[in-house]
Amino acid sequence: TLLYTIKFEEIMSIILRVRSPSGTNRISIPPSASFTELLQQISEKCHIPAESLFLYRDLKDKNPIGTSRTRQTISSLRLNHGDMLFIKTQIDASNAMTDDSHKTSHDIELDAVDKCLSLCDGLISRSRNPQLCNHNDKGRCVHCSPLEPYDEDYLKENKIKHLSFYSYLKKRRSGSGSKFDQLEDIDCKIKPGCSKHPPWPEGICTQCQPKAVTLNQQEYRHCDFVEFESADIVENFIRYWRETGLQRVGLLYGKYEVESHVPLGIKSVISFIYEPPQSADQRSIEFLEDPYHCIVDEVAKLLGLHCVGWIFTDLQALSVADGTVKTMRNGDTFFLSAQECIHAAYFQNKYPSPSQLSKSGKFGSKFVTVCVSGNTNNTIEMFAYQVSNQCMALVRDSILLPAREHPGLAYVKLSSAEQYVPDVFFREKDEYGNVVTKEARPLPVEYLLLQVPTGTPKGEYKPLLPGGVASKFPVTNRDTIDLEGFKAYYRAQPDEYFLESVSDINVLLFLYTNDTLSFRDCLADVCRAICNKDKDAALQFKESPMWATLEQILAVDTVLTTSTGTTWTCNVCTLINEADKAACDACGSPKS
Q1: Cβ neighbours of 559 (radius 10 Å)
Q2: 553 φ, ψ (degrees, to nearest 5)
Q3: What's the rounded Cα separation, in Å, for the pair 459 and 29?
Q4: Which of 301, 392, 290 has its CA nearest to residue 350?
Q5: Residue 520, CB half-sphere, CA atoms under 13 Å: how many?
Q6: Which pLDDT tens digit goes with each residue over 26-58?
Q7: Fewer CB within 10 Å, N- or C-terminus of the chain?
Q8: Cβ neighbours for 266, distance < 8 A, ≥ 6 positions apart
């Protein structure tokens, strides 16, 4: 009887094919068996822990089979004889779920300018040529038909060096014919979860090994123009170098708009420069810890702005009498050093552009790098750049370093026991004019750079933050800012220009951070009036009880400073304490 029962169970068993990274295995199991028994058999044959196994009917499936691993049988899961199942480890399954979530377009919030340009065809209209067109005004021919936004002749004629990103997408789709062509970044890391061999450095295979990278000069850029709302924004930034001779670095805050001079182009409109805490000399700059970075982002958000780039000076006086500077960056030296390119890539990775065509939900970056240096005429000029997506990937995966030989050379790391580094190559012409492939050790950073034009608006343009008309407020992290300084600034401004007087990022930061009377909870009203250029709303805020309290404090002839100054005021007993005191000397209350 026992022998008959065994044979009967063998007859009733079904065969399931299971494909894993190590190959395909056959599992014989009765339909009444539990899902846990199936996992145990697969674990024994494939040598993969059962708790990290996920089974799928298809590699494209998002939800694994048997997500609840209790009280489920093979028959209840509708697994039939001969079915093919696919194995993914816990890491692979989580990555797949993440990727699939990014594929859903409504889950990715695009920038406003991206939403606008994604709906445009970008066609360049042409008028009827009276000499070449032999048709009426309603007809079209090859001489007057609209051009595609990536037309090479049009770009050369208008001296447009790079395609805009959306022009590049149009060109890419015209070649592939696919409307939903996916964008992919290069990956220089070993794929995790490979069970064929021990982890690196003991083993590696073709399935987990990253591919070799050949660097190409990128034909498109994500930002096509950098526009400063006013020349005073840059002049105020350069003034620090003029007064001290020390270099300066700042973060650019603004917004993205459509660039009309480039087909389907995007421009960064800069409204203000925030100068974070820094240590600088005549040749170098070092970022210091900034406790107010989140506050700056919050105030900028109230103004409808965000961080869109960074700017730094590299100036050395040639003649103080005529105001000329030395030319240090050109084709014979370098445009951006390797260290600056790596820092630019770090920022671009920190501020990526959202994309519905990428599995990760982001692709490239609109973040720009602006260098203020001397041009060939020995005058001060702004030079804007972006680094390529390939450079972003190299820096993201920590395999690109500055070379010691020359500032304009980078160096790709060698593989070590801690990290595998794929081969990285670039192409250039030798002395005979032949295109040769070379290893990127070292690598000229020109292969990673994209130049972006800069300028200011033509004609009459009202900046968002013009500042005071009678005098300018001290710059945060550069000058000493206290209530006495604010009092002098505020008293100097005419009453009818109250809106302009508070339209200054340094004034807004002072109102937000001062310890005596913080406007943190009502600053949104001021920012709304600034954005709408609403003088009536600004005057209404001036008549509020909060501002009346500030004016009463300013009427007192006492020097009080913010938390960034030399003293701070206790909120409990109002005692003025030294800046280095963590608690009040009188009542012991902590510094807020």
Answers
A1: 14
A2: -65, -40
A3: 80
A4: 392
A5: 9
A6: 888 888 888 888 888 888 877 777 766 788 887
A7: N
A8: 113, 117, 164, 165, 222, 223, 224, 225, 256, 257, 258, 259, 366
Give the C-alpha separation, 116 to 164, whole Å: 14
Residue 484 to residues 284, 496, 497, 557, Cα–Cα distance (Å): 33, 22, 20, 8
The burial class, CB within 10 Å (0-12 / 13-18 / 19+), for 10 is: exposed
Which positions ≥6 away from 73 have C-beta within 8 Å?
31, 32, 33, 34, 35
Please give the structure tokens belonging to residue 1.
């009887």
Residue 79: CB atoms within 10 A of its CB come to 21
**Could you tell me which of 335, 266, 243, 341 has the C-alpha nearest to residue 115?**
266
Closest C-alpha among 407, 245, 240, 249 to residue 329: 407
Pair of tokens at residue 41: 């058999």
- The CA distance from 434 to 352, in Å, is 37
Q: Tokens representing 575?
A: 């005692």
* Burial category of 106 from C-beta neighbours within 10 Å (exposed 0-12, middle 13-18, buried 19 and up): exposed
pLDDT band at 518 (very low <50, low <70, confident <90, very high): confident
Position 227 scores a pLDDT of 96
- C-alpha 432 chain-centroid distance: 41
- Residue 96, C-beta contacts closer than 8 angstroms, at least 6 positions apart: 62, 88
Q: C-alpha 290: how far from its chain's center?
A: 19
Residue 88: which H helix or E strand, with range? strand 84-88
pTM of the model: 0.76
In whole angstroms, what is the distance from residue 251 CA to residue 272 CA?
8
Q: Report the alpha-carbon distance of residue 128 to residue 587 in Å, rounded.
A: 83
Helix and strand numbers (H, E) in the chain are 16, 26
Q: Which amino acid is at 349?
A: N
- Span 218-244, pLDDT tens digits: 999 999 999 999 999 999 999 999 999
Q: How confident is the model at residue 10 (pLDDT cuts 50, 70, 90)?
A: very low
Q: Considering only CA atoms, which of 166, 168, 129 is closest in space to residue 145?
A: 129
| One-letter-per-residue 3-state SS of 115-142 | HHHHCCCCCECCCCCCCCCCCCCCCCCC
pLDDT at residue 464 in the model: 93
Strands, sheet with 409-412, edge to edge from the N-terminal-most edge strand: 400-402, 409-412, 443-444
Q: Which position has the token pair 């990253």? A: 210
11 backbone dihedrals φ, ψ, rounded to 5°: -70, -35
